[in-house]
Amino acid sequence: MHRVVIVGAGFAGLSAARALVGKPVEVTIVDQRNFHTFQPLLYEVATAGLDSGDVAYPIRAIFGKADNVTFRFATVTGVDWDRREVELDGHAPLPFDSVVVASGATARYFGIPGASEFAFPLYTLTDARRLRDHVLRRLEQADSDPALAPGGPLTFVVVGGGPTGVEVAGALAELLDVAVRHDGFTFERATGRIILVDGLPRLLTPFKESGAAYAAKTLEGRGVELRLGRMVKSVTDACVNLDDGSEIPTRTVVWAGGVTVDGTLASRLDAATGANGRLAVNDDLSLEGRDGAFAVGDAAAVPWGPDSDHPGETCPQLAQVAIQSGKHAAGQVLLRIDGKPTEAFRYKDKGIMATIGRRAAITELPHGPAIHGTLGWLAWLALHILYLIGFRNKIIVLVNWSWRYLSWGSGPRLIVGEEPDEDEDAAGHGTTLLG
Ligand SMILES: Cc1cc2nc3c(=O)[nH]c(=O)nc-3n(C[C@H](O)[C@H](O)[C@H](O)COP(=O)(O)OP(=O)(O)OC[C@H]3O[C@@H](n4cnc5c(N)ncnc54)[C@H](O)[C@@H]3O)c2cc1C
């Protein structure tokens, strides 16, 4: 039986594996986590809107009934291209006939001093839970001593004005509203500041100008301060410094500044790289110069493909690109087994979306109108529920969102870490940040 190893169970790896269920191949999915993460909703976990289990799903449960798919819980350290083996940390290597690299990306800090040390990335479930604990601790800290507020416990700086930054900023504003209105916190809502910083002069660059203007107006209407056209120069344990010389005292910097494959498996594969260091692939998504190997999703410089809207360009790092490229790579594996020629990938653009919070979102269809406001928000809700993995998660998220919408009620505002997070000094007064 032809052995296929799929590295990574994100959108791309899952999509590849699903396309191979029931086919005459033996599939092994390897992931360093035993669950799939629905990254587009991580910001909801970070801002106590949803719980961790609502946006993650065990990989074994997804493929439990598929006879030809197995899961290996391990970290891939490299690929031995001569021996045709995937190398694992602490396990015997996995031999393959075909391999699909779908190892994703990681947060990008642009070498800004202090950013990787003191800012909170939002890329994994662990990141989201850590940020939630930290934010909730800041609220408790400000409540216990409101005099601390000018020092920054209630100032949240979000770096990056793309969809993730906009979503986080909007959700933090709602969290502060709900905390003051329903949780009995005694500090003034006005002492809580959310500041969104971006080096570009407008928000949401992939979106139309009208969508960016709508997002800016809505965020400002919800109390978010925008510092656009301002670069972050450095992040310290107590402040963010901007290129206009200003300093923002803060205990919380959320990093939504983009992603990179630097430092991930893709950069250690001894394979050619393309746009932004992503793995260079041919039209059919095969890895250049590596027989029987494919790269997909965020890890790869996936081409839009011939006859697409942007021939010759590289696709953005989006869930739809990952899903479509993963499925395409699986199809190419089967074509090769049948001795047939492979086919070029062509990305089908289904549009882009971003939400700013309750009843406010932007949905832009590729050749249709841009939808802002409640209708855009409903479209955003429906699509996210549709793409969530697992029936249970779809139902739970639907119920949670409906409940919160109707009642302005509670999300899981739980500090679950056993220990105080690193940014608290021994006395718990938070005089240092992230230690
Ligand atoms: C906060 C956030 C919000 C987003 N919001 C949106 C959105 O609203 N809409 C949208 O379209 N896109 C969004 N994206 C982008 C989208 O989530 C990604 O494009 C998509 O997840 C990429 O899928 P992937 O399978 O390539 O990588 P990932 O989903 O990152 O999956 C990679 C997998 O590989 C595993 N892995 C990595 N290295 C190893 C290793 N060495 N060994 C074993 N396993 C390994 C990881 O554990 C992970 O499970 C968002 C991303 C983030 C971070």
Q: Give a count of the beta strands, DSSP E runs of length 2 or more.
A: 23
The shape is: globular
Rg, alpha carbons: 22 Å
Superfamily (CATH H level) name of the domain at 2-32 and 74-105 and 261-337: FAD/NAD(P)-binding domain
Q: Which ligands are bound? A: flavin-adenine dinucleotide
Main β-sheet description:
5 strands, parallel
Instruction: Write the CATH fold name of the domain at 2-32 and 74-105 and 261-337.
Output: FAD/NAD(P)-binding domain
Tell me the structural class. alpha/beta
**CATH class assignment of the domain at 2-32 and 74-105 and 261-337:** Alpha Beta
Oligomeric form: single chain
Strand order of the largest sheet: 5-2-1-9-20
Helical fraction: 25-40%
Average pLDDT confidence is 93
Distance between the termini: 53 Å
Under the CATH scheme, the architecture of the domain at 2-32 and 74-105 and 261-337 is 3-Layer(bba) Sandwich
Description:
The chain is of the alpha/beta class and 435 residues long. It has a domain of 140 residues: FAD/NAD(P)-binding domain (3-Layer(bba) Sandwich), CATH 3.50.50.60. 29% of the residues lie in helices and 22% in strands. The protein contains ten helices and 23 strands. The strands form seven sheets. A five-stranded parallel beta sheet has the order 5-2-1-9-20. Helix 1 packs parallel to helix 8 and helix 9 runs antiparallel to helix 10. It is globular and about 70 Å long. The relative contact order is 0.16. The chain binds flavin-adenine dinucleotide. Flavin-adenine dinucleotide binds next to helix 1, strand 2, helix 2, helix 6 and helix 8.
